[in-house]
User: Fold this.
Amino acid sequence: MFVKVITPRGQDYSQWYVDVVTKAELMDYTPVKGCMVIRPTGYALWEAIHDGLDTRFKATGHVNAYFPLFIPQEYLRREAEHFEGFTPQVAWVTRGGGEELAEPLAVRPTSEAIIGPIYAKWIQSYRDLPILINQWCNVVRWEKATRPFLRTTEFLWQEGHTCHRTEAEAQEETLKMLEIYREFIEGSLAIPVIPGLKSESEKFAGAHRTYCIEALMSDGRALQAGTSHHLGQHFAKVFDINFLDQDGQLKPVWQTSWGVTTRLIGAIVMVHGDDRGLVLPPRVAPTQVVVVPIPSDTDAELVAGGVGSVRGALERAVYEGPVVGGPAGPVRFKVDDRAEYTPGWKFNDWEMRGVPLRLEVGPRDVKAGQVMAVRRDTGVKVKVSADPSTLGTTISDILASIQGNLYEKARRFRDENTHFAGSVEEIGQIMEGERGFVLAAWCGKAECEREIKDKTGATLRCLPLPGHPAPLLNEGQARIESGGRCALCGGQARHLAYFARAY
Assistant:
């Protein structure tokens, strides 16, 4: 049996992606179009994302709950803009138990319409606020074109839904959750992101404001990695979520919602993967280290003893898990002692699966008191001491180095593929060439945003937030302040905006 070939990225990027997620056994296809099986390795990545974020949510006072999968049609239709925004993607249940339903039920595309009426029951007074609830669940959106993890008919996510007494509290919550996403995705997934504000045309249906974090994939396309919505009082007024304030006045609450999905697994693949397959950041890798014995007919016992010593050292070793700054946990490792496969086959197989570090243990290594450590991110091989008292620390240091290198490599790629454009023609040339992010001046008019998209295929990804380092941002701001002009109409620019073609 041979390790299956991965299509090179430069030959066919889409096929490369499919090859990686299927051959590395992250997912499999099902008879239902657009739905996938998340296999154990893929689900372990989702668990790492879940655990890392869930800990952060709870540390900021949030609690988990669960709301129904089905939403009465009347509830979904109460908010016209929200309903219109999701109608093309809604799946409906019209029969149950062999009978026609009196009212069709929507299969949850998002939960505002079912959570709102519940919150209206729970909230009576300012003493009931804030409500800080998150749920981990699945949603269904009937997509025409699907791609594993990135856009599927059913997917997993978390969605926070909070209620507050004042607008300022809701705004603080919105930005706090955006920052939690940014810190986790950069720190644990090693994916650099740009936090920003969505334009009016790109914001969540019914929201007051939508904030996002945007990442750049290795093919030069952008991916929205997470969103945080300041919902204002719009949904509160629709669903009568009112409270008696301290001044004796009945007022609608201020709301937020925020979420990330299993598309983050796709982002890990596309940001870090290469022509040999997956490359996983150590903090979220299900297996961080694989030990491969090099068999020997004459020194079998010697090798077995060396592997046993390495195993013992790894069992005592610790490495920071997906919770950055949290308690370190045991290094997650496997010993691949399958006799039916050659060491070379195992090397290729584990490389394809993205395991961050491989330790090779052969008779010469054992006699020399060393192991061969091979990094997945660089392919560099280095001999390290097998001394059980130091090996665990050495491995932890290498894993930390891999984590940092993956982030820096992705950050350099993003920054090298971020460009200025002074006109719509320049934006179009970049989109047809190297792609990436384009930073351009924008007057703020929706018609200009729409025409840029029509002419170049690039959407306005975000208006970058001040105070967050982003490529070319300071230079671009200086251009605006010195009389920058809109890339389309030539009018006075009001904003700097990142444009890109996106998933």
Observations:
- The chain has three domains: 13-272, 289-399, 418-500.
